[in-house]
Each structure stands twice: as C-alpha cells, then as structure tokens.
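Hey, I'm writing a tutorial for new members on how sequence and structure tokens pair up, and I'd like a real worked example in the thread rather than a made-up one. If someone can provide the structure for the chain below, I'll link this post from the tutorial.
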Amino acid sequence: MAKAKITFDDIEQTVNVPAGTRVIEISEKIGAGIIYGCREGDCGTCMMHVLEGWNNLTEPSVLEEKVLRENMASRHDRLACQAQILGDCRVKPA
C-alpha cells in the first residue's frame, strides 16, 4: 500500500499514513487542532487550510464544495472529514 506524509503545522508533527486515509482520522489520533462535529461533510467545523500539497488530496465532492462555498472558504481550504491523503501535504486548522 502506498504511503504519504502529512504534516500538521499547529503541532509541528509529521506522520506517515496509508494513501486514502481521511485527514480527520489522523488529526484525531495525534491530537492536532482540527475540530469536527459531524464527519459527514455537511457542517464545516473541520475546515482546514492546506499549506502544501493541495493536489495530493482527493478532489472535493459536490457536497464538500457546497459547504466550503457556504463558509466562504479560501481556495486552499478543505474539510478534513472529506479530504483523503494521496501524497505528501501540510495542513493547519482554518
């Protein structure tokens, strides 16, 4: 299985993870500051800012794009409950 590195800027920690892992799962395990309320992609509380590796995450779903628009997200914001890691990236809570 392919591996990728994700760095959480808020706690300065990098973790190797299997490709396809959702960001929120790793954030929870290591105690990063990305909070969440639903895990279903429709509340927006787990919004994160992608500092590096934007293209190394899965494409946003229609639902995620809708929630991001409603929350006036910036171009490189994503929902941690929806974004799956495909390659190396660096994120922080939005």
